[in-house]
Amino acid sequence: MPEPPVPLEDLRRDYQSASLDERSVDPDPHRQFAQWFHAAVTANVPEPNAMTLATVDDRGRPAARIVLLKDHDPRGFTFYSNFESRKGQELKAHPHAALVFFWVDLERQIRIEGAVEHVDAMTADAYFRKRPRLSRLSAWASPQSTPVADRATLEARFDEAQRRFPGEDVARPPHWGGYRVVPDRFEFWQGRASRLHDRIEYGRDDTGWSVRRLAP
């Protein structure tokens, strides 16, 4: 195995671009997220809506993967996937998840935790119609997370989907739709010098959101 050009223990970066204070953040974490997301888009952060989604299986073993945020409002954070995929099966059995956004250019991270619910069919249909045609066909072609013999098998399934839906109108598969993470916890992390990072946590209870600082 080739050695890395720099020893891993020597890879470090001192964060110094901004600060974060519990006295000045928005009292509503959804609005605070919207402010930071707008800043990420404005700064041309690559794939600002890419987020790590963590789920858990019946043995308590976590699994994480990158998915794309497709909607955010006061109800929560929406992404779309195959219900029969590994994440779909895990969310069916254990409908709670964690999300992580990391915008290295801004030295910022956001962690979100909460329950997961399905997006209603009308909303899922509306989003599916906005996807490029070939992406809609892929939703039919891919038995997500299950073994396939080879690439040719997958491409044959895609060709079959093209024959099934020769025009622009491609129906949403019954096994594909949206999930919404409904948060009860946020953490906004701003990198600071000397590893004394700013961490501001929001927690939700019956009376609303509370805000506190965490040690880095």
Strand segment count: 9
CATH superfamily: Electron Transport, Fmn-binding Protein, Chain A
How many distinct folded domains?
1
User: What integer is the average pLDDT?
Assistant: 96
**CATH architectural designation:** Roll
Largest β sheet strand count, sense and barrel closure: 9 strands, antiparallel
Strand percentage lies at 25-35%
Question: Would you state the CATH class?
Answer: Mainly Beta
What general outline do the C-alpha atoms trace?
globular
Runs in which pLDDT lies below 50 for 5 or more consecutive residues are none
Distance from first to last alpha carbon = 34 Å
Structural class: alpha+beta
Helix percentage range: 25-40%
Do you know the CATH topology?
Answer: Pnp Oxidase, Chain A
Q: What is the helix tally?
A: 5
Q: Using only CA atoms, what is the Rg?
A: 20 Å
Secondary-structure element order, N to C: HEEEEHEEHHHEEE
Give structural notes.
It is globular and about 60 Å long. Strand 3 and strand 4 form a beta hairpin. Helix content is 25%, strand content 34%. It has 216 residues and is an alpha+beta fold. It has helices spanning 29-42, 86-93, 121-130, 133-141, 151-164, and strands spanning 50-56, 62-68, 71-73, 76-82, 96-103, 108-118, 176-190, 198-205, 208-214. Helix 4 packs across helix 5 (151-164). It contains 5 helices and 9 strands. The model has no long low-confidence stretch (mean pLDDT 96). Strands 1, 2, 3, 4, 5, 6, 7, 8 and 9 form a 9-stranded antiparallel beta sheet that branches. It has one domain (12-131, 173-214): Pnp Oxidase, Chain A, CATH 2.30.110.
